[in-house]
Write a structure and sequence with these properties.
Blueprint: E1 23-25, H1 27-35, E2 42-46, H2 52-63, E3 67-71, H3 73-79, E4 87-90, H4 99-108, E5 114-119, H5 124-136, E6 141-145, H6 154-159, E7 169-172, H7 175-184, E8 188-192, E9 198-199, E10 209-214, H8 222-227, E11 230-233, H9 245-262
Parallel strand pairs: 2-3, 5-6, 5-10, 6-7, 8-10, 8-11, 9-11
Antiparallel strand pairs: 1-4, 2-4
Length: about 260
């Protein structure tokens, strides 16, 4: 949407749309947060900083697997004009969970686990819409990779209509290994892909199931396809041969729900 005031159309170096709750800044707050095991999406550190405490923060972040970017001071100033002391941390809008704990809890509560695995879904709006659908359908867990996935900030939470405040999300270093562990926990792996030979409506989704959805650009990683128990396709009769990943996820999630309710 354009501002009615035309002089605002051509501002140079606009300040990024970052909400106050999405960032943490200052040496001591970030140092203490890292020591306490606080999760960060990423850290920005001033490129020419020689501060020993900043160097210690960089080392701690690397050890914790947090992405660190060396950026010019001007970039930090555009994010916040407050005294950042050369370091800004981007705080996730939600707390991530251990996937094995969530699945174990579902079993303990007598539920039939339904997990959604998103392989490199990078569009925030798609991710938010999928999370909303998953929460409405009672999905127990969403699993995403740390690298190559949509950033879950306040925009994603808003797009999900708040669903991300309610549905557990696991963000993992190695998606393939995590999926194998989910399979070993007794869940069948069902990849939703055009490579499938069987329509989703003819695949049994009543038992413990992890549904895998891939990116719109590349689909599901070949490693995940290879270890899947079943490949499901969504039948289409139109001239366009593919669906938006959010729409496709909704179809298969609610098909799983339909089967479970019909045979409850």
């Amino acid at each position: 949407m354009y501002d009615n005031n035309k002089k605002n159309h051509f501002r140079r170096s606009p300040r990024p749309k970052t909400n106050a709750e999405d960032i943490m800044y200052g040496i001591q707050p970030i140092f203490e947060a890292l020591e306490a095991g606080k999760q960060f999406e990423k850290l920005f550190i001033q490129r020419d900083s020689s501060n020993e405490s900043v160097a210690a923060i960089h080392k701690m972040a690397n050890k914790a697997g947090i992405v660190v970017s060396r950026v010019p001071q001007e970039k930090l100033q555009r994010i916040t004009s407050k005294n950042h002391q050369g370091v800004i941390g981007f705080v996730p809008a939600i707390d991530y969970v251990d996937p094995q704990n969530v699945i174990a809890t579902a079993y303990e509560e007598g539920k039939v686990p339904l997990v959604l695995v998103l392989d490199r879904v990078t569009d925030v709006r798609n991710f938010g819409a999928i999370a909303r659908t998953a929460e409405c359908a009672g999905v127990d867990l969403i699993v995403i990779p740390k690298k190559g996935s949509a950033q879950i900030g306040s925009d994603a939470v808003r797009t999900s209509a708040g669903a991300l405040n309610h549905i557990p999300v696991a963000r993992v270093d190695n998606l393939t290994q995590t999926v194998i562990e989910i399979q070993e926990a007794g869940l069948q792996l069902v990849s939703c892909t055009e490579k499938g030979s069987k329509d989703v409506y003819y695949i049994d989704l009543e038992g413990p199931t992890a549904i895998i959805m891939g990116s719109e650009e590349d689909g599901i990683n070949s490693e995940l396809i290879h270890i899947s128990d079943k490949l499901a396709k969504i039948p289409m009769t139109g001239k366009v041969s593919s669906l938006n990943v959010g729409v496709a996820a909704g179809i298969i999630i609610f098909e799983a729900n339909r089967q479970r309710m019909m045979n409850a």
